[in-house]
Amino acid sequence: QVLLVESGGGLVQAGGSLRLSCRGSGSIFSVNDMAWYRQTPGKQRELVALITSGGNTNYADSVKGRFSISRDNAKNTVYLQMNSLKPEDTAVYYCNTRRDGRPGYDYWGQGTQVTVSS
Predict the structure, then answer these.
(1) Number of H helices, E strands in the chain
(2) Which residues contact 8 (CB under 8 A, 6 or more apart)?
(3) Given pLDDT bands bounded at 50, 70 and 90, which one contains residue 101?
(4) Fewest CB within 10 angstroms: 19, 22, 38, 76, which?
(5) Which are the contacts of 75, defined by CB distance < 8 A and separation ≥ 6?
């Protein structure tokens, strides 16, 4: 059973930083793409950042230059370093993992709340 557990969310003032972590278990994560999504009430979940199994990264325009995604395959963990946080970054952040060639391989964590005060 694939399990993802996020941590690191919390309350921070605008301009501050947080680092989210997502630790996986039950699979070989080094061959997976890993991503962070976020969602606010009444809106669709949106992609924040993605890192492929090969280490390529992709970011939403709204976070480019402020957020950085990285992974430690030895620890089955993906990180999201968030700097220069803005109130509009407030959301529940979810970790996701998928694997090329396996459409049914799509797992989510439980989410962690990030709140940025102005």
Answers:
(1) 0, 11
(2) 18, 19, 20, 21, 112
(3) confident
(4) 19
(5) 23
What's the average model confidence in pLDDT over 46-74? Answer: 97
**Tens digit of pLDDT for each residue in 23-47?**
999 888 999 999 999 999 999 999 9
Read out DSSP for 44-98?
--EEEEEE-TTS-EEE-GGGTTTEEEEEEGGGTEEEEEE-S--GGG-EEEEEEEE
Report in angstroms the alpha-carbon separations of 85 from 20, 68, 71: 13, 12, 21
pLDDT at residue 28, as a whole number: 83
